[in-house]
Amino acid sequence: MLKSLELFGFKSFAERTVFEFAAGITCVVGPNGSGKSNVVDSIKWILGDQSAKSLRGKEMSDVIFNGSSQRKPSQFAEASLTFDNARGILPIDAAEVRIGRRLYRSGDSEYLLNGAVVRLKDVRDLLLGTGAGAAAYSIIEQGRVDQILQSNPASRRQVFEEAAGISRFKSKRIDAERRLERVSQNLLRLTDIVDEIETQLNATRSQASKAAKYRELSQELRQLWTGLAADDSQRLDDEQADVDARLAELRTRAEDLETQLGAIEAGRRTIEAELTDCEAGIRELDQQAAGWRQSIAASNATIGHQSQRCAELNDEIEQVRRQQAGLAADAALAERELGDAADRLARLEASITERRGAFEEREALAGDVQRNLAAARDDLQGRRARREQSLKRLADDRRRLDALRSQFEISRASIGELDDRRAQFGERADVSARKLAEAAARLSELDAQAADARTRLDARLQERARLAAQLAELERCLNQRREQRSTWHARWLILQEWEANQTGIGIGVREILERAADCSTPPWNSVLGVAGSLLDVPLEYAPLIDLALGQRSQAIVVEDLAPWLAHWRKAENVAAGRLVLISLGTAPPADDAGFEALLRSLPGVVARADEVLADSELAPGLARRLLGDVWIVNDLGVAETFLRAAAGRCDCVTLQGEFLERDGRLTLGVSSGESAVVSRRSELRQLTLDLRRLDRQIDAETRQLAELTAQQHAREAAVADADAAVRERLELSTAARAQHDVQVQEHGRIVEQVQGLEDQWAAAVARDQELSAQAGALQADVESLEQELAAFDADVAGLQTEIDSVDGELRSLLSELDRERLELAKQEERLHALRETHDRLQRDQVVRQRQRTEAESRLQVLLEGLERSQLAVLQASADVAALTLQVETLQSELAGLEEQRGGVRVRRKQLLSEEDACRRDRHRIGDGIHSAEMQLREIVQQRATLEARMQEEYQLSLADVRASGASAYRDYLTSRGQQPLESSTEVEARDSTAANPASAAPEWATGLAPAFAEVRDELESQVERLRRRIKALGHVNTEALNDLDELETRYADLAGQLHDLQEARTALEDIIRRINVESRKLFLETFESIRTHFRELFRKLFGGGEGEIVLENPDDVLECGIDIVARPPGKELRSISLLSGGEKTLTAVALLFAMFKSKPSPYCILDEVDAALDEANVERYASIVRDFVSMTQFVIITHRKRTMTAADAIYGVTMEQAGISKRMSVRFEEVGEHGEILSPAQSRAA
């Protein structure tokens, strides 16, 4: 039951307000407009009502307190409702359940369940089936009575469903139906996808078979080529071992020669050292003698140089002394010149100072005169400006006067011209009226012709539409046939590809057929083909023949078996795989007419299998040989009877695809796809015939389409002609209408022009009078301005004479100033030159003094240098004498060393001849080593090339290949029943293997070079043969096998999903069926209970009468509407829409309480339900409510005092402040007769 209601910012409840609800009846009273109905609105809002209109607002934000004159608006509205769930009515494990809702002005909203944020769906699911939801019968508000009674039967049914508790079942059913719809849609889409994948799977299988053949050949090529590479690697290892041995021997000999050469070179180095010592001694003596000779030459040069230096110093000393005498004389002369320059400079400075003072006085006087002259000129300029303005005004007035005179003359001429034009336009208006009448007549005639042309066009358009419909139907049929042809042709291409690639036929059979196609020698020229390909079987029997033939369908048919027997005796490997040959050279089995007649007489026997197909022209009797002992029967029962009668001499196949053999084996299901050779050939033949027939039909319909198209083109041309005629008539009509419109406009324009001319003539006369008055006024202004200009000219002439006089005086004064300025500038220039001369003389005097000092210093230096040079000459002469004696002593020592060097050179020549002989031997051995190393590098290069090719083609290393034991040579010998012999090399290799297992080669691979070389070309031929066969396959989709695996995996997954969806659909349909059964049961039980209680309560409320609830369609209990009929006491049975207001209210109360009695709701809110009842009925209404207090908690909004008498608690709602509701507790005596809350004084008076 309800425990409390808390409001904050909801509508008029601005303050936080709490209503506590006790058991029994709680009344909420208050005057109109106090906000008591907002209590009901808040409960509906909390329980999830989404209709702003239902909450008496325009939009949901209207529930937020909007403010008042003394209070700001709230930013959000919040309300919460607390339930006492001690009895577990609500399906939640909590003794107290608090449901809240909050709405912000931004539009954000949230629901709360026990403080946790939840969804609206969670709140609704919690209340479903409890009768406590917002849309249930637990809240009856103003107008809801009429809504329940007067709503349509289907809408009224919702209340009954809530009472029956099936609303949650209905919600689940609707959800299950939606899920079922989604599952059905997914099932449909998945079915399409599975069909598409199946189509792709069929197409990919043909490519996959080709890829499988490619993979098989590639693996065989890989095995052969890698084995050959391993054998080549082993051969290269053997060759490398031989070369390594030869190279080791040569290197040993080379080392011996190197030792011998080392000894020779040691002796040679000793001799070279002796020779070097001799030559070093000789060079040392030569260098010493040369040094002494150079010293002698240097001393002699020093003597000559110093002697010459003494002479030069004597000359330079004499020159310096003469320079000193000249400098003393120059200094005396410069001193005199400097004194003269200083006197001239002083006199010139005094003269310049005096002249500059006089110049400044005259310059000031000239400035005063210039300023006076400028003022006079400004005055003259102003007077001239005013004169110019007067002249301009005079010129303007004269021009205006001339213009007015011209306008006056033009106005006079215009008046005359307007008189003439008025007469002319009157005549043109008459002519225009006549043309307008003619254009109207022409327009009527052309409109009638256009209507006739339009009628003819409509007829031709209908004919064109009929032809277009025929053409469209023919194109639709043709497109259908073309689509059918495309489908058949696609299937034909697949079958043709299978046939061309011999898909489904064994590898050995294909090899035989390929060799037979390329070879015309025995036994290959006797091959006729595969048995299944040589039989011409009708399509309907092809699967049965495939089943009956089994593996015999791939048997090779030959003309004679003898060449093949001879071929096999040669022990040649003909082909891989299992082969079956059928010879036409042997006699077919003999017919047993009596036995066959017996079999044919059995019931259910269709025919012998070879009789349902045509015999092959290429292989006559083949069908009889293959199928002569196979019979076709109706079903498996007949087959059992047939085999018993045949006594083990025949097999039989049923029309359902069951093959029962004479030994009791039973095969079920026919072959399909690539492996069914006969079916494939039959389908290919049938498709070829169907495609030809369809091509003939398409050609015929194409010709018919062309004929209809030609007719359509003819109709199009006729329509175009008719359309052109219509357009022509319309154009003529349009042109006539345009001409008529132009004529109307022209006539109107002429009339307007006539009126305009009249207006212009009146305006021209008025303008003429105005111009005459303006001309008189301007003439007076012109005469006044001429007099003013004469006075200006006299003033300007006097002022100009005065300015000319002052200007002459100023020019004279300025000329004198210019002369004075020039003279002053010349004197200043002389002063500047004189100052420069004085400064220069002072500088020259300083320079001469410095030169005298330098000359004295230079003389002293020269005297000292002369003394040093004389001493150097004496010392050098003594050195020359001593060095000459030492050179003579060295000459004798040098002769002895040269004799010793000759003997050492003879010994060195003998050693060099021995060394040349050794080096020639070493060079010959080096060539051998180089040749061996080149051979070794070639082997390494071959191995690297082989390694690179192995990596490039198979991403394997030679080491891995050899470690795997691959060998083409071994496989070759094994295929011929031979084993390679073990040589001594193998024994050695086996010994080395024991020492180093990691580097060991296979036992059979060592020592095989001679035998391997003999068969290597044949192995290489096999490799090339495999490469040609792979190339002959053409383009191969190597991913087809992977694609096939992926498609098969995806097909299996999708098929599983399809199965899951089908099971899900079945499960959902079962759920819906069980929900319907349960809902029907609950609804009928509740409906009968409510109907019984309604009858009782109706009689109790009305004091008699009769009320009934009926189903509109009893056969559709779950969907039909519910109708209510009532007969108050003393009245006829009638529909509730014809009852009075009070009767409707009592009927609704009876219905609602019948529901409560059938399935009590935990609470009930009645909002002014008693408003339409009179006092007597209010008493009955209150009595009924009181009767239900034991099972339901009531909250009643009312104005009626009699209703309040039944209340256990009363809350008052009032507005002490405008717009703000306030809750208060009141007593019964504090409420007025109309629900208003009385003041204490009013209460005591009452």
Write a concise keyword list for the protein shown above.
1246 residues; single chain; extended; alpha/beta; six-stranded mixed β-sheet; Rossmann fold; Alpha-Beta Plaits
Q: How does this structure look, described?
A:
- Strands 2-1-4-5-6-7 form a 6-stranded antiparallel β-sheet. A 6-stranded mixed β-sheet has the order 8-20-21-3-22-23, with helices on one face.
- Among the domains are: 1-138 and 1165-1178 and 1191-1246, 3-Layer(aba) Sandwich (Rossmann fold), CATH 3.40.50; 504-683, Alpha-Beta Plaits.
- α3 (144-150) packs across α19 (1141-1158), α4 packs across α18 and α5 packs antiparallel against α18 (1040-1102).
- Helix content is 69%, strand content 9%.
- Residues 981-1010 have low confidence and may be disordered.
- The two termini are 35 Å apart.
- It has 22 helices and 23 strands.
- With 1246 residues, it is of the alpha/beta class.
Topology:
Elements: E1 2-8, E2 17-20, E3 25-29, H1 37-46, E4 76-84, E5 96-104, E6 109-113, E7 116-118, H2 120-127, E8 139-140, H3 144-150, H4 153-164, H5 167-501, H6 507-518, E9 527-530, H7 531-534, H8 542-549, E10 556-558, H9 562-569, E11 581-583, H10 593-600, E12 605-608, H11 622-627, E13 630-633, H12 636-646, E14 651-654, E15 658-660, E16 666-668, H13 677-954, H14 958-963, H15 968-975, H16 984-995, H17 1009-1032, H18 1040-1102, E17 1106-1111, E18 1122-1127, E19 1134-1135, H19 1141-1158, E20 1163-1167, H20 1175-1187, E21 1193-1197, H21 1201-1204, E22 1209-1217, E23 1220-1225, H22 1240-1245
Parallel strand pairs: 3-21, 3-22, 8-20, 10-11, 13-14, 20-21
Antiparallel strand pairs: 1-2, 1-4, 4-5, 5-6, 6-7, 9-10, 12-13, 14-15, 15-16, 17-18, 18-19, 22-23
Helix pairs in contact: 3-19, 4-18, 5-13, 5-17, 5-18, 8-13, 18-19, 19-20
